[in-house]
Amino acid sequence: MKKVKNIIFDLGGVLVDWNPEYVYLDVFNGDRKKMQWFFDEVCTFDWNENQDAGYPLVQATNDRIKLFPEYEEWIRMYYGRWEEMLGGPIEDTVVILKKLTDNPNYRVVALTNWSAETFPIALKRFEFLHWFEGIVVSGTERTRKPFPEIYQTTLARFEIEAASSLFIDDNKRNINAAAELGIQTIHFQNPIQLETNLSDFGIQI
Fold first, then answer.
1. Is residue 66 within 8 Å of residue 4, measured between CB atoms?
2. How many angstroms separate the CA atoms of 157 and 20, rounded?
3. pLDDT band at 196 (very low <50, low <70, confident <90, very high)
4. Does domain 6-17+88-200 have CATH number 3.40.50.1000?
5. What residue ranges do the domains of the chain occupy?
6. For the sheet containing 107-112, what is the strand order?
7. CA-to-CA distance for 88 and 195, rounded, in angstroms?
């Protein structure tokens, strides 16, 4: 284990609470089974990730409507009411981030799967996003985690080495991809666990 000099944060699920349930649970009158069917069959995780890699939101919406014209109203809500899916900051992780960005021993950047079209909304809403030295946004790069190119882009852009970098993400798939490139990792589950794992790397909060 090499001493950590650089810390790379994921955003959604680590620092930002984003969940389409905030819209659709109400749309489906609390029927979780019906809502999950909609996410599994119509506006799927894979479909949304395609927009994270730079596919235009309007085109993506129209594509789905062509496949499922009977659900046009619900499909349009996905990006039409996207801002309502932002539940707010994960406050205890933001506290940890603040301490790390204030510490001159570490360079702190972010790597996020996020549509370039919606990310400006988050930048306006969350002041802590401006604490990072920089943020690599998948939609801008037109690729996304877990593809190795976006990790390599991050390392190159900030001129940091993999071995002395620590990547924090709530998605195990993304963690595994980073580890394959020699980046140290923490699989985020909650802020308390994160603080414990940071201590394991010799990073005291």
1. no
2. 32
3. very high
4. yes
5. 6-17+88-200, 18-86
6. 135-137, 107-112, 6-9, 165-169, 184-187
7. 20
